[in-house]
Design goal:
By secondary structure, the protein is of the alpha/beta class. Helices cover 36% and strands 12% of the residues. Bound molecules: zinc ion.
C-alpha cells in the first residue's frame, strides 16, 4: 500500500459563483439559478481534482457557506439562517490580517441542523468517478453558538450539547450513507483555543480539554471499524490567505488532540517553521491503539495560502523526513487546510479566486506525485 494522500476539502469558489452568491443575497437571482452555478462549480472541481491523479476527491465544498456554517446558513451573509439563531454571535476568529469571522448566536432550543453535509454530497456523488471524501464540522466549533456564560431560558447548555452531539453524529453517518469513503471533522478551533486573544473572549477560557471531550462524545458512538475512516483536521485557520493561530505552539495542542479517538488526522505542517519538531510530536503523541484504531498522521505538505507551487520533490522530502519520526504504516500526506474554507474569499495573494483554483490543482498534483515518490523510496508501493 502506498502512502495515503487526501485533501482537506474546500477549493476557492469561482468568481462567477461568488458573484451569484452575492446576487442571491441581494434577491436578484433565484435559488435555482444559484444552484446551477454551484453544480457547475462542483462538477469542475471534481473533474479537475480527479485529473491530478488524487485517489480520493472532494467537490471543493462549492455549495457550502463555509466549513463551519453549512449546517445552519445557506450563505455566509446569513441568508436562510436556521430557526432559533440570530446573526450576531461571537467572533469565531480574528485573523492576522485584521479581518474576522463571526458565528450566529443561539436564541433558544431546540438546536437542529438545517442542512447536513450529505445533502450536498448526494448531489456531487454522481459527478465523480473516483471515491469521494466529505468534511464535516466538529461539535466543538458549534458549541460556540451557545452563549459563553449565560444559560438560555428553557434550553440548558446540557440539553444543547446533547442535541448538538446527535446532529454531529447524524452528519457523519449520513455522509457515509451517501457514499463518502472518508469523513474528516474540521477542528480549526483546537489550536485557536490555545491562543488567549483578549479581543476574542472564548479563546481565553482554556476550552481545549472540553472540546476534546465533546468531540469524543461523538466519536465514541462509532465502532473502531468506522473510526478508521473518520479523521480530524487541525490547522491555524485559512481565510483570505491569512491565519488565526499560527503563533500557537503545536506542543500545546497535539498531546490533547491525539486523545480524540479518530482513526486519522489531517495536520497543517507545510507552513510550520520547524517541521521536524512537529513530526516528532506527532510520532510521540499519536496512538497505535485509540480504542481499537491505529491513528494515521497525514502531514500537510502543501500550503494553500501561498501561491508558490511546491514541487513533487519537496513533498517527497517532507515525507521522508517525517518517516524518521512517524512509522510509515501510520503516515500519509494532505494539504495544510482547505484552499478556501469560506465561500466568499478573493484569495488576495493569488490575484483572484479563479487563478487560485488553477494553482490549487497544480499543488494537489505535486502532492500526489511527491507522495508516490516517497512511497517508492520507503518501499511501500
Ligand atoms: Zn483548516
Amino acid at each position: 500500500m502506498p502512502l495515503p494522500t487526501e485533501p482537506v476539502g474546500s477549493l476557492p469558489r469561482p468568481a462567477t459563483l461568488q458573484a451569484a452568491i452575492a446576487a442571491y443575497d441581494a434577491g436578484t437571482i433565484t435559488r435555482s439559478a444559484l444552484e446551477r452555478e454551484q453544480d457547475a462549480a462542483c462538477r469542475d472541481s471534481i473533474e479537475r481534482m480527479e485529473a491530478t491523479g488524487s485517489p480520493i476527491v472532494s467537490d471543493g465544498e462549492q455549495r457550502a457557506s463555509s466549513f463551519a456554517t453549512y449546517p445552519v446558513a445557506d450563505t455566509l451573509a446569513g441568508t436562510g439562517l436556521a430557526p432559533n439563531l440570530a446573526g450576531d454571535g461571537q467572533y469565531f476568529a480574528i485573523f492576522t490580517d485584521g479581518h474576522h469571522r463571526q458565528l450566529p448566536r443561539l436564541t433558544g432550543g431546540p438546536f437542529r441542523y438545517k442542512t447536513f453535509a450529505a445533502d450536498y454530497l448526494k448531489k456531487s456523488m454522481p459527478m465523480a468517478k473516483k471515491p469521494m471524501k466529505q468534511a464535516v464540522i466538529a461539535p466543538s466549533m458549534l458549541s460556540l453558538l451557545y452563549p459563553l456564560d449565560a444559560e438560555l431560558p428553557g434550553y440548558t447548555r446540557a440539553q444543547f450539547l446533547e442535541d448538538l452531539c446527535n446532529e454531529c453524529e447524524q452528519d457523519i453517518r449520513k455522509a457515509f450513507q451517501a457514499g463518502a469513503k472518508r469523513v474528516s471533522v474540521d477542528f480549526t478551533e483546537g489550536r485557536l483555543a490555545c491562543r488567549n486573544d483578549p479581543r476574542n473572549p472564548w479563546t481565553g477560557r482554556g476550552m481545549l480539554e472540553q472540546f476534546i471531550e465533546l468531540n469524543n462524545r461523538v466519536l465514541d458512538r462509532f465502532t473502531a471499524a468506522e473510526r478508521v475512516n473518520i479523521g480530524i483536521h487541525t490547522c491555524p485557520g485559512g481565510d483570505c490567505d491569512s491565519t488565526h493561530s499560527a503563533d500557537v505552539d503545536y506542543a500545546n495542542l497535539l498531546p490533547s488532540m491525539f486523545r480524540m479517538n479518530a482513526g486519522y488526522f489531517l495536520i497543517q505542517l507545510a507552513s510550520e517553521r520547524d517541521k521536524e519538531r512537529v513530526y516528532q510530536l506527532c510520532g510521540k503523541h499519536s496512538r497505535t491503539d485509540a480504542n481499537g484504531v491505529a491513528q494515521v498522521c497525514f502531514i500537510g505538505v502543501i500550503n494553500p495560502l501561498d501561491p508558490e507551487v511546491e514541487t513533487a520533490e519537496q513533498v517527497r522530502d517532507d515525507l521522508l523526513l517525517a518517516a524518521k519520526h512517524i512509522p510509515k504504516e501510520r503516515l500519509g500526506s494532505t494539504d495544510d487546510c482547505g484552499f478556501s474554507p469560506f465561500s466568499i474569499d478573493v484569495k488576495p495573494k493569488h490575484g483572484s479566486p479563479d487563478l487560485a483554483r488553477d494553482i490549487a490543482f497544480q499543488k494537489i498534483t505535486s502532492r500526489v506525485q511527491g507522495t508516490a515518490m516517497a512511497s517508492e523510496r520507503l518501499g511501500v508501493m
